[in-house]
């Protein structure tokens, strides 16, 4: 057999194994609310090729070969356990077993690693929590996709309604258009599933989930209990109200909590999941998920401060243009943003640096920031320049950040790439808050410059969902548990 034939045979064997994994992953997800991960990447509803590519990524970031032949036995071992709702990372299981010297079988090691999700420790399925989206723009539709994707398994969140302006005599036509925007997206592609419209009932039906479209020009116009909605979490995607007084307007009958997808003002808590979500008080009804840029810089900033100490910093964001800019030169309340977004680089302000203090109150270092909007539709990069508390070198910093992305409590927020030719479009659809670009990282003594990619739409929407899961009480534990 030639080398090429041998490689092809090996590929076909791995394809067959990956194909056999799909029904096991699906059954665990549907029947037991178990989400199977590989280095923090969900394998639920993934194709054969996607599963193989995720394994290849694991080799790139972990620096060691990780094949489906190695992870399949751990997946099979999970089916023999009486698991409760949880997330299980079979990549970490395989690597931990490889490093373990006790001679335990795959079945024994797996049972030990996920013991917190079995027996007396097992979490029972909880009653789903209603969610309402107020506003249905870029973030609103992506959050809707994520909620629909997870519906009925793993997070207990139920998207019950969206609230938009308009309606009247052309409400049926309006719903059709909004459903179409949910179905097809120029950046993020086709919706994975089926979408139909119940024009008479005023509903969008996505993958069997009935979503009521409510028309209102102000929160005071809506009584959510009239639609059978109760104890719901409302996600405000409009950014129209950012302080406690304004956001309190949403606390109508049927709404229990309000989550803002923009930086909060005044005493509204700004939450970056993975960093300060544990500070949310159980009785807090109003909170913010801060901005996409704040979510991109705060996790790596915390990681660097934990290990090296940060004395001062500056963040320069090169940000994709957004809907608040003009396609062509026109009036805008902000001077430069009135100029054509697809034709210019536009200097603008960012509140991300000042928001760091809210998310990281223990960080005493002054952080400054500025931003440039550029003619790309999605994915941005934050250049984080830091003065550290001690000297180090590039290799040490990269090894540390690689380990953080794999094994720390921040592994869902921080990703890591070693691709030498990485560009912005490579990160469309990333579910992490930021991705460390290893090749661009610069370290000189006590000065470090990190280049952090982030999908300012989808990655941020994933952070929003994580916050909503946390405050709803349906954020299930992950195994093996990350090191503290």
Automatic annotation (TrEMBL):
Residues in Glyceraldehyde 3-phosphate dehydrogenase NAD(P) binding domain copies: 129-292
Keywords: Oxidoreductase
Membrane-spanning parts: none
InterPro entries according to UniProt: GlycerAld/Erythrose_P_DH, GlycerAld_3-P_DH_AS, GlycerAld_3-P_DH_cat, GlycerAld_3-P_DH_NAD(P)-bd, NAD(P)-bd_dom_sf
An example molecular function term from Gene Ontology annotations: glyceraldehyde-3-phosphate dehydrogenase (NAD+) (phosphorylating) activity
Matches recorded under CDD domains: GAPDH_I_C (cd18126), GAPDH_I_N (cd05214)
Domain of life according to the entry: Bacteria
Keyword match Transport: no
A Pfam family annotated for this UniProt entry: Gp_dh_N
EC number: 1.2.1.12
NCBIfam families: PRK08289.1
Family membership noted in the UniProt record: Belongs to the glyceraldehyde-3-phosphate dehydrogenase family.
PANTHER family assigned: GLYCERALDEHYDE 3-PHOSPHATE DEHYDROGENASE NAD(P) BINDING DOMAIN-CONTAINING PROTEIN, GLYCERALDEHYDE-3-PHOSPHATE DEHYDROGENASE
The protein, known as: Glyceraldehyde-3-phosphate dehydrogenase
Organism: Streptomyces luteolus
């Amino acid at each position: 057999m030639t080398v090429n034939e041998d490689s092809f045979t090996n590929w076909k064997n791995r394809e067959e194994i990956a194909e056999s994994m799909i029904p096991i992953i699906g059954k665990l997800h549907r029947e037991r609310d178990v989400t199977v991960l590989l280095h923090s990447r969900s394998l639920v509803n993934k194709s054969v090729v996607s599963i193989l590519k995720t394994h290849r990524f694991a080799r790139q970031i972990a620096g060691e070969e990780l094949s489906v032949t190695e992870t399949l036995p751990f997946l099979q071992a999970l089916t023999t356990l009486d698991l409760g709702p949880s997330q299980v990372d079979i990549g970490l299981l395989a690597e931990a077993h490889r490093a373990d010297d006790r001679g335990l079988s795959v079945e024994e090691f797996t049972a030990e690693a996920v013991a917190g999700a079995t027996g007396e420790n097992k979490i029972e399925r909880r009653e789903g929590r209603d969610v309402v989206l107020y506003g249905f723009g870029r973030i609103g539709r992506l959050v809707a996709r994520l909620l629909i994707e997870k519906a009925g398994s793993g997070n207990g969140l139920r998207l019950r309604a969206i609230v938009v302006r308009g309606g009247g005599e052309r409400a049926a036509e309006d719903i059709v258009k909004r459903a179409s925007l949910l179905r097809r997206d120029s950046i993020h592609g086709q919706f994975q599933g089926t979408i139909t419209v119940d024009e008479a009932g005023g509903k969008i039906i996505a993958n069997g989930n009935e979503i009521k479209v409510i028309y209102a020009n102000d929160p005071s116009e809506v009584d959510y209990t009239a639609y059978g909605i109760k104890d719901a979490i409302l996600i405000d995607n409009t950014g129209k109200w950012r302080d406690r007084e304004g956001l309190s307007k949403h606390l109508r009958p049927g709404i229990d909590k309000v989550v803002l997808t923009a930086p909060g003002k005044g005493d509204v808590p700004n939450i970056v999941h993975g960093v300060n979500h544990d500070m949310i008080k159980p009785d807090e009804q109003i909170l913010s998920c801060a901005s996409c840029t704040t979510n991109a810089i705060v996790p790596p900033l915390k990681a660097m401060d934990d290990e090296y100490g940060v004395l001062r910093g500056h963040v320069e964001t090169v940000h994709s243009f957004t809907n608040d800019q003009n396609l062509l030169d026109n009036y805008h309340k902000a001077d430069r943003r009135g100029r054509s977004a697809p034709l210019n680089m536009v200097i603008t302000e960012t509140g991300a640096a000042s928001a760091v203090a809210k998310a990281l109150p223990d960080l005493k270092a002054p952080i400054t920031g500025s931003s440039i909007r550029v003619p790309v539709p999605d994915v941005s990069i934050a250049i984080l320049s830091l003065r550290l508390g001690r000297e180090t070198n590039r290799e040490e910093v990269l090894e540390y950040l690689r380990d953080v992305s794999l094994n720390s409590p921040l592994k869902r927020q921080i990703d890591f790439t070693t691709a030498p030719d990485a560009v912005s479009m490579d990160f469309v659809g990333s579910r992490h808050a930021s991705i460390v670009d290893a090749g661009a990282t610069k370290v000189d003594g006590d000065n470090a410059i990190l280049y952090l990619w982030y999908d300012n739409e989808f990655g941020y929407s994933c952070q929003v969902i994580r916050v909503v899961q946390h405050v709803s009480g349906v954020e299930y534990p992950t195994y093996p548990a990350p090191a503290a």
